[in-house]
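Subject: sequence -> structure tokens, single chain

Hey, anyone have a minute? Need the predicted structure for the following. Not urgent.
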Amino acid sequence: MGRRRRKKRALEVEPLQGELLSEAMSPREFASDADSTESATEPEPTSAERSEPSQDAVPEPAVRPEPAASASASSRPSAPAEEASGRDSHESARDHAAAGARPAGEPLTRARSLVERGRIHEAIQLYLGILTVNPSNLKARNNLGVLFDGLKQFDAARDHLEAAVRIEPDNVEVLTNLASTLTSLARYEDAEGMLRRAQRVDPDDLRVHLSIGILYFRRGMYAQAETELRWVCARDRDNGLAFYYRGESLNRLGRYDEATQAMERAAELLPDDPKPAYTLGRLYDCKHMPEEAAEMYRRARRLQSP
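Reply:
Had a minute. Here:
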């Protein structure tokens, strides 16, 4: 009798501590331009918001800036300062009314600046002040959802993002952000519904396809995840996160040669991220390449060191 062949098992990735540069499936803020229009066409990511990792070898979130202990009074929206002496009350009242009618671009810009400096609670207070004046301000709604998601206050994030969707139902960025928060709440079917809705608006949006692929990965649907992520990788050769998750999906499907190729590309694109390096070490071990594996393990340990 011939020897029974041992069935290969997917290489499980052990948890690593440390930063990760991934941003997909994490909500993103709208840019705070000078006008106060209630839509935005070019949202920008911030380092403050990151997605919640799944327990199935999903990358660790990057370090979020520590929120301020409390919001300072100077960061909250306030009435215009008193007019200089010598001006009559009618002129002062007129200027006060004009100030109240100004676009919200300036508060939006200040709020974003606060976020970039890690003063999250102050930014939240400023956004809430904007909504007190105009509850339908799409940027404030979206960005509040982003900040609450970053603080892991997912119910509050969902409320603001759902309000943003009601304001502009076909905004792909808002739909994708809401899908991220719903994913954090383990409402996977609802999250997929939001992403499919976004996909109907813009079938070729790369972030939507990437988010769908990562959602499939988190649900253990590795073949479907690989299909979506392969589509992204073919169109964006510089998308490190797409290559990382595609490599992980291929690993779990037992397609180790393809997984190695994808993970090598991910390691190139995410040089400060320990996860691709560690997984690549495991894959090299599987391929009986001990020297290459040892180098990847050393790199992963170095990257996760404080």
